Amino acid sequence: MSQTLTATGPLLRFAARRDRVKLSIWVLGLAAFVPYMMTAYKTIFATPEDLAPLAILMANPSLTLFTGPGFGLKNVNPTELTHQIIFASVYWLYLLIFVALMNILLVSRHTRLEEQTGRAELVRASVVGRLAPLTSALLLALGANVAVGGLVALGLIGFGSDASSSLLLGAGTTGLGLVFAGVAMVTSQVSAFSAAGSGLAGGVLAAAWVVRGVGDMAAGPDEYGTWVSWLSPLAWAQQTRAFHDDRWWPVALLLVTAALLMALGYAVAARRDLGAGLVEPRRGRATAASWLRGPVTLAWRLQRTQTLWWAIALTLAAAMYGSFTPAMVEAFEELPDIFQQLMGGSGVALEGYLTLTVTMMRITVAIYAVVAWQRVAAEEVGGRAEPVLATDVRPASWLAGHLAVVAGASVVLLLLTGALAGYFAAGVDGDYSLVADGVAASAVGIPSVLMVLGLAVALHAVAPRLVVFTWIPVVAGALIELFGDMLQFPDWLRQISPFEHTPALPAEELTAAPLVVQVSVAVGLVAFGLWRISHRDIPGH
Amino acid sequence: MTHAIDTHDLTKTFGRTVALNRLNLTVEPGEVHGFLGPNGAGKTTTLRILLGLIRPDSGEATVLGGHPVRDAVELHRRIAYVPGDVELWPQLTGGEAIDVLTRLRGDGDPARITELCERFDLDRTKKGRTYSKGNRQKVALVAALASRADLFILDEPTSGLDPLMEAVFQDEIRGLVARGATVLLSSHILGQVEALAHRISIIREGSIVETGTLDAMRHLRRTTVQATLEGPVNGLATMPGVHHLTTDDGRLTMEVDGEHIGAVMSRLTDVGLRSVVAHPPTLEQMLLRHYGESTPR
After folding, report:
1. Nearest CA in chain A to B93
2. Measured CA distances, A423 to A321, A430, A508, B95 (Å)
3. Contact indicator for A366, A452 with CB cutoff of 8 Å
4. Which of A285, A392, A538 sits opposite B73 (nearest CB)?
5. CB-CB: which of A288, A295, A386 is closest to B83?
6. Residue B23 exposure: Cα atoms within 13 Å on the Cβ side
7. End-to-end CA separation in angstroms for chain A
8. Nearest residue to A252 (alpha-carbon basis) of A231, A233, A229, A266
């Protein structure tokens, strides 16, 4: 056995060296979750009495879908509520999801991607044991998970939390991370391509989320989850009941499951050939569909799969936000001012919540637009634009073709989510004119998304590698829209958000001036981009 | 006569690197023009300028009588291109990629595509990400060869293909020439260039150092002659054009300049030739002379 692990140590150091920036950002970003949330609670909910309405809201069955079984929230004396209970029973789930994502990406990056690119072949041809690359990747994942769990526990203790409960929550976080390292290790064996393996692991994560959500929703008023919840590893972490009545044995369940999954991954990896997958890549069509014959249709063919997945995800998200609506409307009066402000502060719960939903969807569609445009930039950087531009397609037509597809898809996604949000809001008291309100609210958001897209196009036309800077206004805008009220950002800062100027329908009135400005900016940026790309070199790769 | 390709003093720098330094290349209509040079000499940069994908810092290029950038669309309808590093769309099959590229140019006969796929033994139902380098190259080759272009710009098109496919490739290129097309062929495979090229240009450090037919190039080179004579021969070493004469057990070895080979051979014949071997410099020898500093003479 020792021979199969030769050089694990050097490979581990090498992997850590290559990943030092990316992994540090992940670990520190996840650890920062604790001080961020704890500070925010202290600002918003100064006393346990302030927490009471939130606890009632979060114990609502439709909301347990998004939080968990709610240990310490049900039938509780308000004076016993703490920020730690809120953290563990409401927001921990989101920390767990991101920890799982970190592991999925880390394991597929260090195992299957290395094989797919042929780098593993170079390494394995050296004096390296058969299982050493896999083992070094797992050790790196182990280190990252222990670091995240440890920092989370330390952060909680730093905010004056009970040390034992803090350690339990940290251990649950580490254990859940290791389970998904194991899941990714197994799914990475299935396909010869890393994207397929991490996608499959992401599917397992989504299924785990849905299963525990359904299980928790089905629970009675005095129950904490049901047997269905227990089918999901996400629930096992929550079932440690950290900060309620701590129990450690679910952590063991996580660790044993992680070990079993890793053993399965090892068994498969040891038996298969380097670079091979368990399933053969699927065959496709021998000739292109007859509609595929120009820059626009080619752009659509390249964006199609990803766009359809976004449409499905946004539909589900809109449905989930929508299913909140009755609970939010019911609890609106009890909520702290801060939530009322987030919903437009109009005092009309239903319209305020619809406005908030549409704003969230608008930001998400802007994120889609940037992600889709990064794909366009990758076409050029990856050398796949070159053969197209060697035919009779001009650079400006190539850019315009992609722009037409991404802009069109963004508009469709906006209108779709607006209609869905309105439809679910209408479910509260049967006022289906809210569907039209939702569509109108999302339609006035079109110029802001086009402005973001215009920036991506203009940056691309200068140099495709600059497209990444489109994230700055999008992320800043998202933070300003979601936390600007809560953290009381100054007015001038809020002005820079691309989403700030969109009239917040239906809570506010429609004003045309900002829309005219946004459309002009978008048109100007696109015009610059189309002009600029015709006057620059198409770099080789 | 208008040239198919004509460049005048093309210069292109990338940062501090001088990729092309006053490059003058002429390709005549209907010929296969071999474009040879070491890695990094500027071959790909030249081809990308001819396609209008990048612009020269100074100098002029004319392709099929047009301007590579200004007339790009018109020209590209008449040009087929195979890049050196073929990148395919990972989610499209090879067949889809071929169809997209030929349709974008506005031609591409499905029957011809099928024929080419069969000749090159290409499975076009596989996704782009699953192809090896050789198969990616076949996809680009099929897309190019299926077109009715007048000018084919091929950047090391067969570097990943096996000898059998190489033969198919050469056959297809001869077919293109037979119908009057022009081919600019950048290649490292000397046998391929010797077999196909009417004329050759050798590029080094961004400039064309030699251009002409292979025969003309050889004519200017020294021929290696080995001979066994019936009797002694005097004054051979002082004859014009004779270099490096050595005698080993009655066997002469020397190098003779192309223009003096006739005189030297008649002198040897006068003495009486028992056996003679004479061979012109190989393309490899000629290239090595240009590529490296310490080349065999």
Report:
1. A284
2. 11, 9, 19, 43
3. yes
4. A392
5. A386
6. 36
7. 43
8. A233
* CA dist., res. A185 & res. A188, Å (int): 5
Chain B's closest residue to A533, CA to CA, is: B53
Q: Which amino acid is residue A165, in one-letter code?
A: S
Q: Does B142 reach chain A within 8 Å, measured CB to CB?
A: no
From chain B, the residues in CB contact with A389 under 8 A are 51, 53
Cβ count within 10 A of residue A334: 12
- A9 lies within 8 A of chain B by CB: no
B96 and A285 within 8 Å at the Cβ level: the answer is: yes
Whether the CB-CB separation of A109 and A136 falls below 8 Å is answered with no
Q: How far apart are CA A497 and CA A450, in angstroms?
A: 14
Decide if pLDDT at B135 tops 90: yes
Tokens at A251, concatenated: 């952590």
Question: Does pTM top 0.90 for this prediction?
Answer: no
Whether B213 contacts chain A with CB within 8 A? no
| Interface contact B104-A281, CB threshold 8 A | no
Kindly state the tokens that stand for A51. Answer: 């927490």
Q: Any chain B CB within 8 A of the CB of A283?
A: yes
| Burial tier of A513 (Cβ tally within 10 Å: 0-12, 13-18, 19+) | exposed
- State the DSSP code for A4: G
CB neighbour burial string for B129-151, b if at least 16 within 10 angstroms, e if fewer: bbbeebbbbbbbbbbbbbbbbbb
Q: Which two tokens stand for residue A26?
A: 């992940």
Q: How many CB atoms lie within 10 A of CB A540?
A: 15
Name which of B48, B100, B127 is nearest A288 (Cβ-Cβ): B100
Phi, psi values for residue B166, rounded to 5°? -60, -40
- Cβ count within 10 A of residue B17: 11
* Angle of the A8-18 helix axis to the A132-158 helix axis, nearest 10: 60
**Which chain B residue has its CA at the smallest distance from A303's CA?**
B91
- The CA distances from residue B236 to A148, B244, B258, B273, B275, in Å, are 87, 11, 16, 14, 17
How high is the mean pLDDT of chain A? Answer: 89
* pLDDT of A487 higher than 50: yes
Interval A206-263: pLDDT, tens: 999 988 988 888 887 788 888 889 999 999 999 999 999 999 999 999 999 999 999 9
Whether residue B176 contacts residue B25, with contact meaning beta carbons closer than 8 Å, is answered with no
Q: Cα(B110)–Cα(B95) distance, rounded to whole angstroms?
A: 10
Q: Are B58 and B1 spatial neighbours (Cβ–Cβ below 8 Å)?
A: no
Q: What is the percent of chain A with per-residue pLDDT over 90, rounded to a whole number?
A: 56
Q: Which two tokens stand for residue A175?
A: 């254990």
Burial of A291 (0-12, 13-18, 19+ CB in 10 A): exposed
**Phi, psi for residue B160 in degrees, rounded to 5:** -110, 10
Q: What is the model's pLDDT at position B46?
A: 95
Per the rule left: phi > 0, alpha: psi between -120 and 50, beta: everything else, B60 is beta
Indicate the SS3 state at residue A332. Answer: helix
What is the nearest CA distance from A303 to chain B, expressed in angstroms? Answer: 10
